[in-house]
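ok trying again, last paste got cut off:
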Amino acid sequence: MFPSVDIGFVFALHQESVGILDRLKHSRKTRGNGWTFHTGSVGGFSITLVLSGVGQNNAEEATKILADVFAPKMICSAGYAGGLSSRLKQFALCVPEQVLRESDGQALDLSSPIPRKTVPMLNKFTLLTANDVVESPEQKRALYAQTGAEIVDMETFAVADVCQSREIPFLAFRVILDTVNDPIPKDIKLILDNMGKGVSRFTGALLGSVWSRPSVVLDLVSLKQRAFTATERLAQFAIAELLRRQTLAEKPYLLERDGT
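nice, full thing came through this time. structure:
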């Protein structure tokens, strides 16, 4: 059993986590049962970060293990997202007030520290957790029309649901990597689908895509450049949010003014 930490981060992909990993002091890595955990400290907070892999099942299991082993006082679901609304530009930092699960329409209210089940609320800034990568602008617009959600990912609902069941304070924040008008090429989708499913499957998908369409390399370079900018945005927000919470903890009289 490891000592309890202040903050637990759940990232699907290594690339999403790099900004935080680069800032971790006294960093150490632990592997177990297929999961990789990074522990250290940032701004006086003890942190454990887990790389879950893509999708709700992976996110759920990783969050449960994170909660069981490290008992974080708060859990954050962070990473990239797609835009479903035209008002969200690339690299916009989004903190949703509500998350919906595409498969059954269930909703969790994220506006209080501990998520709680609720009916979907149209007045809330909403993230949709989808079952699959949303490829085309047409699909994105259709999801926005159906749900009112302005951003989409594949993990947040699962993480929030675990936190709700265990009464763990929760925060979600996402950076827009592809806007509503940005299509995701099918071979890039194939690569994304196989990330986190083992080296052999990922390598096979990558080599197959390059073999069938050599220009996919240019798409991957562009994606990497955008991902680097998005990752830095995630890290900057996370650090600023931790420092803000530290200030409020040290000066309780600011809590009422802050509205939290």
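cool. Residues 187-191, 197-221, 251-260 have pLDDT under 50 and may be disordered. Residues 7-184+215-258 form a domain with the Rossmann fold fold (CATH 3.40.50.1580).
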